[in-house]
Amino acid sequence: MLDANRSGTAMTSPGLADRCTRAVLSPYARLSFLLVLLAGAGAGVLVFEPQRLLTHGWPPQLGGAAAAAVFGTAYGLCTVAFVPRPLLNLAAGALFGSQLGLAAALAGTVLGAGVAFGLGRALGQDALRPLLRGRWLRAADGQLSRHGFRSMLAARLFPGVPFWAANYCAAVSRMGWWPFVLATAIGSIPNTAAYAVAGARASAPTSPAFLIAMACIAVPALLGTVVAWRGRHHLRGH
């Protein structure tokens, strides 16, 4: 009888492998892995200095659409590692011209946003959602969760919120994948195009195209500041 009880206890108690699996897959373990991953990506950016593209140009062995595809992939990975998009957009225009540079930058934007959203959703959401207790945090989370496409479209059209911050905030919220991707793709077009044109015409800073591009950069930024200033009352009301 005693042997039977011991056998039953051994069969029902969780094994070491199960406990280790649960520990590794726990919300805070996944969040810790995400933080380590992002810290490593940021360190990689400091080492490789992608901003040198603006001064040294693109490797001569790569050209045309293939170079734009490689650049778009690198662009997306750089945004995950917190490289500012304006710098990358200027580089896209300077390296590939307005049209091809815009295409490469937009592809990189969507890729980077999608990767960041996926990482945040898989590794950070479960651990961070219970921490959304402040009034502003709950209001922002509710806005993103209920009006995901509209909120993200506004965030992309009117610069103010850092690109990486918007990605990870959306991932922690209950926003759907497709509204996030579509809003990012559509909302990023005007600002990205303005930077790409500015990068392509940087050698002629007095040209009409460059001046119009700079105006298209400054005006949305100003409008975004005004909208954010007025929207703070709405968040406080929640």
Describe the structure.
- By secondary structure, the chain is an all-alpha fold.
- It has one domain (27-236).
- It has helices at 2-12, 16-24, 27-48, 53-56, 64-80, 85-128, 135-146, 148-157, 163-172, 177-187, 189-200, 208-236.
- Helix 3 runs antiparallel to helix 6 (85-128).
- It is globular, with a radius of gyration of 23 Å.
- Residues 83-200 form the VTT domain.
- It comes from Streptomyces broussonetiae.
- Strand count: 0
Beta strand %: under 5%
Oligomer: single chain
Q: How many domains in all?
A: 1
Quote the average pLDDT.
78
- The DSSP helix count reads 12
The main β sheet shows up as:
none
Q: Would you tell me the structural class of the helices and strands?
A: mainly alpha
Provide the helix percentage: over 70%
- The rounded distance between the terminal residues' Cα atoms is 63 Å
Subcellular location: Cell membrane
Protein name: TVP38/TMEM64 family membrane protein
Membrane topology: Multi-pass membrane protein
Keywords: Cell membrane, Membrane, Transmembrane, Transmembrane helix
Give the topology, please:
Elements: H1 2-12, H2 16-24, H3 27-48, H4 53-56, H5 64-80, H6 85-128, H7 135-146, H8 148-157, H9 163-172, H10 177-187, H11 189-200, H12 208-236
Descriptors:
238 residues, mainly alpha, 0% strand, cell membrane, membrane
Give a summary of the structure in a few sentences.
Belongs to the TVP38/TMEM64 family. It contains 12 helices and no strands.
